[in-house]
Amino acid sequence: MNRKELSPDSSPRAAFGARLRSAREARGWTQDELAERTGYSSQHVSAVETGRKPPTLRFSRSADRVLETDDAFERAWREIRHGSLLEGFQEYVDYESRAVEIRKFEIGIIPGLLQTPEYAHALAESDVRRGAITAERAAARVALVAKRQAALERARPPMMFTVLDESCLRWLVGGPQVMAAQLERLKEFAGRPNTVLQVAPFSMGTRRSIGMAVILLTLPDRSVVGYAESWFRGYLDRESTKVLPVLRAFHQLQAEALSQAESVALIEELGRGAA
Length: 275
Prior knowledge:
- The protein is an alpha/beta fold and about 280 residues long.
- It has 2 domains: about 10-80, lambda repressor-like DNA-binding domains (434 Repressor (Amino-terminal Domain), Orthogonal Bundle); about 95-110 and about 155-275, Endonuclease Chain A (Endonuclease, Chain A, 2-Layer Sandwich).
- About 50% of the residues lie in helices and about 10% in strands.
- The chain has helices spanning about 10-25, 30-40, 40-50, 55-65, 70-80, 90-95, 115-130, 135-150, 165-170, 175-190, 240-255, 260-275, and strands at about 100-105, 160-165, 195-200, 215-220, 225-230, 235.
- The chain has a 6-stranded mixed β-sheet, sandwiched between helices.
- A hairpin with a 5-residue loop joins strand 4 and strand 5 (about 225-230).
- The longest helix has 17 residues, at about 135-150.
- It is elongated and about 65 Å long.
- It starts with 11 loop residues before the first helix and ends with a helix.
């Protein structure tokens, strides 16, 4: 029987699956035996263990009951359901750290790799005030932004092509001082030898070829992975038939956006107003 190796650090769902397998094997049970005790099929147990299917609250409570783990699996389920990161995002971060080229289009907020610590903190704190996340999860989110940025400060950093919708520059986050520092950070980013920064102005109108935030990662083997988010989770796509049209739309967006020099001039103008 083929045994899929698990990577518990890749996501909360993967961590749940690894913990379930470990607890089951500690009892000396097969997947069939755990399935019989919990009232689920062995296929369902296998899918949860390998992260192909998310656990439900009912399944988690059943696992706690038969494996005598108090509420460990229920708490793990709540971590998946209410965690600070979207499901699927940690897998994206793993790809991001290996990419040789990164293409991003963002609407509304400055993307994490370009954020100042103060900007990242202000975003996280706004979610805390709304009750969306806890203060502990906010701190973890800000720490992850810093960790992702540090991972790209390597001997051969990836090329980064970033297009920001004008709304990213005009949406006030954290107050005037935070925004002024963030705009300065964008100017510094644009000056690096491995970056291209452009702004898609409001005046583009329907010439803007992409209507949602997207990320495209070129990996060392030159394959391209696409990433986008819904309200509930992040989605990675490795199928070229789906990713290549997005890559083409990104190139069209770059052609219509302001040049880097024009973009920096706009950032400087807005920075004078924010200071």
